[in-house]
Amino acid sequence: MNKILLMNRKKFIQLCASTAAGMYLPSFIKPVKKKVLILGGTNFVGPYIIKEAVAKDWDVTIFNRGITNPQLFPELKK
After folding, report:
1. pLDDT computed for residue 21 by the predictor
2. 29 to each of 18, 21, 26, 68, how far by Cα in Å?
């Protein structure tokens, strides 16, 4: 049989309380801003990856040669 069906009332309430407490735990933890280094990033799929990372509010750094589309993303660290 299912283990939940075999539980007594006390264990069931403990399980529900611990599950409910776990749902709110992440709200107390400050999220860490992700950092990403993009190698290249100014040609082919790079601009799309950079736009998506910026939209997700990640800390983006671009490392490229400055030959292809160097004017892209002037607001980002290079």
Report:
1. 65
2. 17, 14, 5, 41
